Amino acid sequence: MRLGWCWVLWLCLGMQARAEGPLPGDCRPMPEQVLEQINRLRAQAHRCGSQTLLPAGPLQWDPSLARSAWRYAEELARRDLLSHRGEQAATLRERLRSAGYLLRTAGENLAAGPVDLEETLALWLDSPEHCDNLMQPDYEHMGLACVAAPGRYGRFWVLHMGRGLRTQAQRSEARGSDTLR
Q1: Quick one: which of 71, 75, 68, 80 has its CA closest to 24?
Q2: Which single residue of 2, 50, 145, 163 could bond 70 by disulfide (Cβ 3.0 to 4.6 Å)?
Q3: Is the pTM of this model over 0.90?
Q4: Domains and CATH numbers, the chain
C-alpha cells in the first residue's frame, strides 16, 4: 500500500510542477553551439512574412555583443519585462557602445519564456521582423545571452547582431591588402 501512496504523491507533485512550468535554471548555451545553430539557419533561405530572404553569410561570435546581450538580459529579468527600451542604456546603440562595440549597423532580437535556443529561434523565425533581423546579410558579428529568473517569464533571451566600424588600422590594412606590390 505504501508503494501506491508514493506513486500517487509522485504523480501529483509531478503534475503540479508541470502545471507551474519548468523551473528557471541555467540557460546559458555555449557560444560554439549558438554560432552553429544560427549560422546553419542563416545558410538557408527563409520566408519572413510576405518576403523570402536569401541565405546570409555566417556570423562570428563577438565578446562585446555577448556582453551587451548579457547585461540587457539581466536587466530584463530584473524588471520581469520584455522591452527594447532599457533603463540604463535606453537604446540598442547605447547598450552596444557601453559594451565597447562601435556599430555601423545592428539589430536586437528579444524573447521571454522559451526554454531553449531551438524554441527561441523558432519563435523568431515565425515573427516577420525578428526573422528579417536574423537574416540580415549586413551583419558580421553576434552575441547571445539567456538569463533565468523567477517571475512571469522565467527566461529572457537577447540576441545582438551587428557590423562594427572599422578602426583606422583596419582600414589601412584593408587598403594595403588591396594594392599590388
Answers
A1: 80
A2: 145
A3: no
A4: 62-79+90-165 (3.40.33.10)
